[in-house]
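Workshop exercise sheet. Pairs work together: one partner reads the sequence aloud, the other fills in the structure field after running the prediction. Swap roles for the next sheet.
Pair: D.N. / O.F.
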Amino acid sequence: MTDFTLREGEDFIRLGQLLKAVRLVDEGSDAKYVIAQGQVLVNDEVCTMRGKKIHDGERVTYNGVTVHVHKRA
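Structure field:
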């Protein structure tokens, strides 16, 4: 399990950006592919929208790794 903290002043991060930020994929094109192929779960449901906004408290799972997204305290 991995934690990701949103930058100060941000309310969300886009799904493709999150996968890159936590190094689950190397490039945006890789994120686009795995998302389009239905390999990414958001809150335990398949998500095929690369631009989906991921907010505080949401979970993203790919390749056996779950990332919890949090707002900066």
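Discussion prompt: The helical segments are 15-21, 28-36. What would you look at next?
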